[in-house]
């Protein structure tokens, strides 16, 4: 046992991996389990400005038992818009969301996900693809298309074959909701007065549509690490 590395050394080594790897190692190797739970390790995974980020997100101090608990809270996806909206009947569809870059960590890539569901009477949502756009400040950083709903019979519509791949249609989340990845953007942190604007539009068709339920748009951070590559935050 005298040959074992000190706990702080093990934590230092684990800090060059990813949060997911640190959790996995702690499960298969009890010798490093204690080191994988230390604040010294998890503070390395937190963004350098995490205290400032917390101060912008909440009005009162938060009480966390460990840096790992804080990390998991910061990385849990939260919708930009916490109000659920249902589309009753319309010809055109337009969903927009906006967030200031000062609410986001600098030097971080984010993915945007539309969280949605359908009422029993939903109709007209599988005919044409919707256009997606993400802008940071006055720069358009992403443009593409999504299909809000699979055709009832499971066959691909011509529009889906032309405009989309399998990753751009709804996926089940496991919590009763569906999600579609809209795209990603990089927050360089150089200007904290810019806005990130995300939109989903279908304004070219003449098909009545309804029954779409939207919970909001989630932003999820990614961390760039030369040692382990690109990992989800």
Automatic annotation (TrEMBL):
Residues in F-box domain copies: 4-45
Membrane-traversing stretches: none
Superkingdom as given in the UniProt entry: Eukaryota
Gene3D superfamilies per the UniProt record, alphabetical: 1.20.1280.50
Name of the molecule in the record: F-box domain-containing protein
Classification via Pfam families: F-box-like, PP2
Family matches, as InterPro entries: F-box-like_dom_sf (IPR036047), F-box_dom (IPR001810), PP2-like (IPR025886)
């Amino acid at each position: 046992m005298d040959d074992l590395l000190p706990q702080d050394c093990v934590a230092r080594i684990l800090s060059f991996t990813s949060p997911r790897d640190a959790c996995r190692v702690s499960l298969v190797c009890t010798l490093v389990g204690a080191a994988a739970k230390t604040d010294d390790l998890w503070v390395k995974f937190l963004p350098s400005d995490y205290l400032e980020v917390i101060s912008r997100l909440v009005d009162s101090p938060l009480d966390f038992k460990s840096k790992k608990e804080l990390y998991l809270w910061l990385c849990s996806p939260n919708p930009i818009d916490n109000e659920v909206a249902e589309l009753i009947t319309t010809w055109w569809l337009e969903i927009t969301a906006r967030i200031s870059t000062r609410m986001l960590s600098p030097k971080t890539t984010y993915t945007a996900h539309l969280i949605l569901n359908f009422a029993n009477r939903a109709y007209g949502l599988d005919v044409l693809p919707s256009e997606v756009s993400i802008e940071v400040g006055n720069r358009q950083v992403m443009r593409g298309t999504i299909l809000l709903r699979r055709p009832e019979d499971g066959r691909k519509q011509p529009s889906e074959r032309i405009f989309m791949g399998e990753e751009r249609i709804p996926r089940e989340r496991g919590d009763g909701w569906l999600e579609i990845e809209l795209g990603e953007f990089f927050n360089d942190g150089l200007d904290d007065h810019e806005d990130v604007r995300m939109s989903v539009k279908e304004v070219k068709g003449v098909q009545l549509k309804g029954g779409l339920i939207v919970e909001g748009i989630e932003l999820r951070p990614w961390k760039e690490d030369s040692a382990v590559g690109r990992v989800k935050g």
